[in-house]
Amino acid sequence: MSTFVIGLSLAALLFILAAGLVLVFGLLGVINLAHGAFYMLGAYVGYQIAAWTGNFWLALALAPVFVAAVAWIAERLTLSKLYDREHYLQFLLTFGLILVINELVRLVWGVGYLRVDAPVLLQGSVDFGTFQVSVYRLFVAFAGLAAAGGLYLVLEKTLIGTVVRAASANSAMVSCLGVNVRRIRSSVFAIGGGLAGFAGVIAAPMVPLSLDMGLIVIIDCFLVIIIGGMGSIRGAVLGAILIGMTRAYGQNFIPQFIDPLTFGVLVAVLLVRPSGIFGRKERMA
Amino acid sequence: MSEKLSFNLTFIVAAVAFLALVPSLGAGERAIYFLSLTLIWGLFAAAFDLSFGVTGLLSFGHAALLGVGAYVFSILTADYGVPWGIGLVAGAATSGLLGLLYGLISMRVGGLFFALVSLAAAELIHILISSTLRDITGGHDGFPAVPRPMIGSSWDFYDNTTFYYLILAIVFVSVLLLAILRSSPFGRLCQGVRLNPVRMTHIGFRIARIRSLALLVSGVFSGISGGLLASLMMFISPETLSWTTSGDVLIMTLLGGAGTLIGPILGALVFETMRDVLSDLTVHWYGLLGLAFILCTIHLPEGLMSLRPGRLLGRLFASRRASKGELETILEGESKWRE
């Protein structure tokens, strides 16, 4: 049962990350390779804020805003110049962003491992009689649930969400209706970055901070969006649960084959449904 | 982008003739080692371009094709005493098979998603080699004592200059084969698959087979460069398989000019020069490289090869310069047309 909660917390983290990727892909048609770098940046900035103020909650609130600002600047300066070119160029550009962000993080924080303590409120574990569950893992699982609920409400029930969905479907038409699509794109890219930063801060007390923390998670995250069906938030939920649980239970039973196992899940899904569980064929780039 | 075989061949022969003379021009040990390394990366980049620039398959997992070739070669020659040449061929064949496996992936996921899945596959192989199979591969510590060839008794390939000639010869033959392949009917088919896969299907070609074959060939030559790399360094580390290698070869290819044979090789030269010069100046050279790469995607997406002297001359002799206003009028018309 405690494995189940660990799986849920992994799934929550993966979902928050994948949601950012899916939002950006839906509207911009760009797969943001630098998403993992934003995640890492969020963790490091969160570490710094927590170190300065001693307050984890402040870090959780401010670091995503910082990362969103970085993402916004990156989009304005670089990505926005490439929208009418081939998609692979935008994709490669986000690869260049990784190199730059990695180097900046190395410049500021060095290459050593850093750690962040969970806030006092969330330390320790809850005893359910037959099994124990870390409070922080429960918190992460709920954060993922909250993020999923919040995203659903914003996308489905508000005007802004409707604009974003409409622009994903047909940005030229939405532009004709007088919406500044350019600004929506920048904002969505920033929000995607902010979500990654948020995931980074949340992950910080669970994993040691290092320069390659982004890559490890982002590959799972790519598996999630491909399994779920490209560009589908519902799919991201399902994919995140699948990969999170595979990782958690795999770690328990066959730790040395856990990576082949997660990749096996992807292969199995692709064999049955080539465009992912909730995928639509025409979404394929 | 059409390529002229004669242009490529002239360039290759001229470059190889020059490179063969370099040692006798009094180049130092360090320069020879640098050129050997550049030749190997150049071959790898040219192999990568067959899948990316020609066939349009953006693979982010080519590090595994290089690394698996290197490891198979190293293990066979060092642990099992297999002759050097046979080890190299076996490594290349294994990488070719892995390329074929990538071909299977490309049948299910297309476009940028192929890049993501090949990245995941390469990272999986990286993990397998660095930890799961550590008994055979030496794990994170790398694989030491990779041999150099023993041919006859008069040649000592542990001398870097002698080995340089062998590398030059192998890279020359490989690049020659790649040049011919690119201009062959098969090369045209690959171009067709990149430019319009739907139409190619409707004409009656099996694009999945063309893609798989292109990845196989790309894998074979990547494997050869992997084996050469291991033999040159006499050591191979699992770091070679990390995603940064896949990124490096992408940077080389785009920097030089994807879709051309010479561009990626030129890109490898520029990349290695930057690595050599910048890493002496600053430990943060990789970030600078990233910056250069970003600028390249925005301002020079067709790479250095699009800066051909002919074009520059053309610009010089153009009767007049178009004004910014004129050009913007054209752009406005264009964007109206699009919407």
Describe this structure in words.
The complex is a heterodimer of chains A (285) and B (339). Chain A is mainly alpha-helical. Chain A has one domain (2-214). In chain A, 72% of the residues lie in helices and 2% in strands. Chain A contains eleven helices and two strands, in the order ααααββααααααα. Chain A has helices at residues 2-28, 35-53, 56-77, 87-109, 135-157, 159-169, 171-176, 181-203, 213-228, 233-253, 258-272; strands at residues 125-127, 132-134. In chain A, strands 1-2 form a two-stranded antiparallel ribbon. Chain A is globular, with a radius of gyration of 19 Å. The N and C termini of chain A lie far apart (40 Å). The mean pLDDT of chain A is 88. Chain B is built from 15 helices and two strands. Chain B has one domain (5-308): ABC transporter involved in vitamin B12 uptake, BtuC. Helices cover 75% and strands 1% of the residues of chain B. Chain B has a two-stranded antiparallel sheet. The longest helix of chain B has 27 residues, at 207-233. Chain B is mainly α and 339 residues long. Chain B starts with a helix and ends with a helix. Classes of the chains: A mainly alpha (285), B mainly alpha (339). Chain A binds chain B through residues 31, 78, 81-82, 85, 87-89, 91-93, 95-100, 102-104, 106-107, 172, 175-176, 215, 219, 222-223, 226, 230, 256-257, 259-260, 263, 266, 270-271, 274, 284-285, and chain B through 58, 108-113, 115-117, 119-121, 123-124, 127-128, 131-132, 243, 247, 250, 254, 284, 286-291, 293-294, 297-298, 301, 338-339.
